[in-house]
């Protein structure tokens, strides 16, 4: 029993058995004094390290006879260690030699093999970085760079780090904006990159953002009059309640830009701009008409606002004249007709813009409201059109009346449902008038000629037998009480033809039927053209 305990204390097995474990501090087959044991289990010497399998074998390369191995910590470079050349555990190793490969000694055998990713995972635990990749059955650690801070731009403007997105109340994520840290100069923005920068509540009159990349930026409540955004990327930017008088947006990317409540009169959109999913139809007008003049002199008795200064509510800017640099803005009273004319001009620009972006439905919407507000302007000559109202008053009245009639009848040719509604109204009106005329007048009515069934008595032995035959019959629909079913059939057929083989009007019904056919023919033509226009706009 004591011999068995000695053998277990010295590594197990018989002397010379290759399955004996190599213990730290002695070579294979060497001799060492027996260790002290307690309760049949050997004790680990002080300072010895445990490997990943719970044995006393060091995690590094086994020692050679007569070599004293120094101790090292986790920051000591070790040959053949993991990423970065650092040891995974405090182990005792010898100095690396040229051409050495990381090796491990198999448990209970004397063979050696090259260390693989599987062995490393078993002996040392999972790699330091959670990401791994498998190559040829070997699990190798894959180094992933740390989180890279956003790149910096020139000193004019981008904040140092892109903030994380925050969750909106509706569950969607919205970008966080930071304040602008550059110089407030009109030409310091061209060609720059701004991600999530706050330009709100600022006087940016004449600012040059041409060729700039402005994503998730906030221009709300800012005065951007005479600003230049040609070729700029304005993806998901906000222009809520901002003043966009005479703003150049040629070739700009307005995808998902928000212009709700913006004062957009005087846009300079001579070239195409990408307006996919942009909110452009919720614009507003300033309460007073804005005019601009260019002057290099210092303002006299005019409020001067420095470029980049914080401004109050943009709705209050039109109360007083002011000057920013060489741009001087004055304001005049705006009546209801001029305000309607301004809205009509804005919808005209938006119509052309949506057509260039192949958005037919939005273009038809803008076309309707362009004519709608132009009708409300009474075609009034004003400083906006360069004429006087009383010069062409007769022509103005005629055009206004005709426009109102066109709007009510056909919705300016772009509202098919309104045309169908008017056709149904015309049909109901004609049917009611035909029922009244045929039921009360003796000299007017409608004659129906068509096949009928006549019952005749048959001659022969059978008394009382009858025979039914088909004959041509002619009935006056209003003679013995109006036949509402036949009149409805006549009214429906008269929509497409005034002369019918089965129905023949006479008296007052003849001119009424002709007028009814003329109006219905016009409405049907408008209906076909409107439907065709809708199909082409898809």
From TrEMBL:
Keywords: Membrane, Transmembrane, Transmembrane helix
InterPro entries per UniProt: 5peptide_repeat, Pentapeptide-BTB/POZ_domain
Residue stretches spanning the membrane: 419-438, 513-536
Stretches the record annotates as Disordered: 1-70
Short name of any one Pfam family annotated for the protein: Pentapeptide
Descriptive protein name: Pentapeptide repeat-containing protein
Organism: Streptomyces inhibens
């Amino acid at each position: 029993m004591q011999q068995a305990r000695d053998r277990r204390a010295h590594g197990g097995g018989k002397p010379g058995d290759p399955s004996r474990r190599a213990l730290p501090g002695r070579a294979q087959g060497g001799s060492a004094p027996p260790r002290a044991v307690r309760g049949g289990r050997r004790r680990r010497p002080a300072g010895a390290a445990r490997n990943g399998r719970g044995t006393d074998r060091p995690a590094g390369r086994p020692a050679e006879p007569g070599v004293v191995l120094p101790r090292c910590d986790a920051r000591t470079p070790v040959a053949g260690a993991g990423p970065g050349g650092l040891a995974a555990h405090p182990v005792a190793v010898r100095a690396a030699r040229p051409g050495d490969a990381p090796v491990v000694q198999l448990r209970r055998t004397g063979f050696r093999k090259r260390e693989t990713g599987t062995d490393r995972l078993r002996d040392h635990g999972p790699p330091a970085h959670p990401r791994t990749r498998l190559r040829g059955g070997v699990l190798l650690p894959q180094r992933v760079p740390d989180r890279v801070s956003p790149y910096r731009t020139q000193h004019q403007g981008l904040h140092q780090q892109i903030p994380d997105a925050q969750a909106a109340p509706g569950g969607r994520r919205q970008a966080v904006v930071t304040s602008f840290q550059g110089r407030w100069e009109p030409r310091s923005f061209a060609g720059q990159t701004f991600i999530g920068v706050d330009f709100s509540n600022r006087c940016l009159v004449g600012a040059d953002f041409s060729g700039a990349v402005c994503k998730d930026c906030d221009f709300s409540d800012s005065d951007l009059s005479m600003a230049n955004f040609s070729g700029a990327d304005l993806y998901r930017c906000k222009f809520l309640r901002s003043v966009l008088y005479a703003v150049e947006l040629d070739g700009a990317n307005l995808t998902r830009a928000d212009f709700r409540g913006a004062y957009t009169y005087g846009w300079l959109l001579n070239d195409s701009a990408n307006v996919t999913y942009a909110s452009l139809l919720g614009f507003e007008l300033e309460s007073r008409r804005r005019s601009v003049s260019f002057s290099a002199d210092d303002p006299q008795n005019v409020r001067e606002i420095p470029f980049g200064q914080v401004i109050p509510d943009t709705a209050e800017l039109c109360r007083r004249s002011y000057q920013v640099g060489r741009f001087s803005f004055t304001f005049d009273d705006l009546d209801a007709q001029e305000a309607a004319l301004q809205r009509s001009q804005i919808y005209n620009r938006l119509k052309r813009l949506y057509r260039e972006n192949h958005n037919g439905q939005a273009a038809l919407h803008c076309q309707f409201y362009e004519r709608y507000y132009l009708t409300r302007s009474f075609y009034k000559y004003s400083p906006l059109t360069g004429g006087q109202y009383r010069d062409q008053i007769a022509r103005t009245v005629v055009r206004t009346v005709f426009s109102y009639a066109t709007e009510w009848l056909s919705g300016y040719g772009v509202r098919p449902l309104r045309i169908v509604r008017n056709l149904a109204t015309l049909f109901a009106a004609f049917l009611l008038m035909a029922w009244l005329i045929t039921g009360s007048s003796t000299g007017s009515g409608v004659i129906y000629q068509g096949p009928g069934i006549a019952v005749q008595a048959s001659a022969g032995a059978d008394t009382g037998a009858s025979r039914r035959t088909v004959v041509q019959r002619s009935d006056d629909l209003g003679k013995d009480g109006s036949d509402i079913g036949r009149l409805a059939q006549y009214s429906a057929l008269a929509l497409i033809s005034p002369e019918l083989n089965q129905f023949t009007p006479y008296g007052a019904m003849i001119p009424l039927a002709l007028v009814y056919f003329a109006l219905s023919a016009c409405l049907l033509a408008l209906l076909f053209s409107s439907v065709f226009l809708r199909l082409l706009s898809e």
